[in-house]
Amino acid sequence: MSDDRDTLRSALARLPDGTSHGETPDPEHVYFPQSHLKALHPDVVVVTGMRGAGKTFWWGALQNTAVRTLIGDQHTRAKVNENTVLKTGFGVRPAVEEYPSKDVISQLAKSGAEPRLIWRTVQAWQVAPADHPLRSEGNWVSRVAYVRASPEAVDRLFQLQDAKFDNEGRYCLVAYDALDRSADDWRGMYQLIRGLLLMALEMRSYRRLRAKIFLRSDQFNEAAIGNFPDASKVLASAVDLSWPRRELYGLLWHQLGNATTASAEIRPMLHREHWRCVIVRDRPIWQVPRPLLFEDAIQRSVFHNIAGEWMGRDRRRGFPYTWIPNHLGDTEGQVSPRSFIAALRLAAEDTQNQHPDHTHALHYESVKRGVQAASTIRVRELREDYPWVDRLMTGLQGLVVPCSFSDIAKRWAETDALSKLREEVEEEGIKLPPSHIDNGPSGVRLDLESLRIFLRMFDGRVNVPDVFRVGYRLGRRGGVRPVQ
Length: 484
Hints:
Shape: flat
Strand content: 5-15%
Largest sheet: 5 strands, parallel
CATH class of the largest domain: Alpha Beta
Strand order of the largest sheet: 2-3-4-1-5
CATH architecture of the largest domain: 3-Layer(aba) Sandwich
Low-confidence stretches: none
Radius of gyration: 24 Å
Distance between the termini: 35 Å
CATH topology of the largest domain: Rossmann fold
Structural class: alpha/beta
């Protein structure tokens, strides 16, 4: 049994970090939650999700022909296969020949190009054949000028390419991601997203041409981006990349069963039967047995064989299977799979260092420290996306939540946090500042609630989920200790 324990611990410590920069993952690393399969369908224009939910992962994965082959062979309802043409309209990687950068978009906008025209140009550029006149334009300024001056020629381009792909029986998708990098302020970003949706609506009139738009949950503000006729035709079918508990564990089983050097030894430890191997372009991919994906009791039993039954010396401390997701969720209970996997990976490393002879692969104290480390990662991600959040939350260190909002406002007043933040916004142009800052503390509270950091309780007090509370060093009676 100690050999099994050590093998599992080692495999957990080598789990991938899940950070995606638009790479094209290998098919054996791709796990398909049910909601995500629906999101891949060409007729789903808008895909939403929290940071770390998988938007950029799928943006990159769809560009891998082997992944599209796997989808076509194993998940036919998604209507994506190896013959699907996948183009990129915007993303995390600089690619000036594929799409304009933020600075180029800003230049185009200042010259009078409306957002819809900019994205119509990108879409036309991506579907145009090599001999089309648009392809002779050497930069985005001249390409936009061509599309503005030649609306009928561009309409004909879309119509002819749509007929071509329809005759071939395949879709052409242009994928747009990382739109927070298209502008520095909310107003500019919302205008660009609105223009992109207008263009995507236009594509819906064709049979085989589509735009697929990946948005963060906080970007999906229907009042700001959906105020145009027939917006519901693209927004109503939006799919959120959710990660219920069973899918988080499904991802874990898939990673352990496929992506480590010891996978052949680990698969029977997790489930002795029903692992099925499929071959995609000479690559073996092991599919997780259905009972291990859909039966809560089996998932719980298998994970407790890995981490033990309790989060302490007895059942009063909670059960690892539920405890970990519960402590990694935001105010809506949504858990980033990146945080989940990171917590387990770091817990395995800590167990090896601090409790190498523990009877299970994971020690409960190491699991707690893994959650602490995952919280630090989430806070770091927030800092990257919204620097202003860090300015406000660090001043709350030591507060015990739930607490009265007046206690929070008092801290901000004592440190002059809002005035300093306003100065930064005005003088330094801080990225995506709080949109309600002019309304004072109550306005910023709304912004923090929209990011699922603050939870407004029924009695008006403020609570902060552990996944943020721990990293920002706030206290809670009986909770996971803040990072020191």
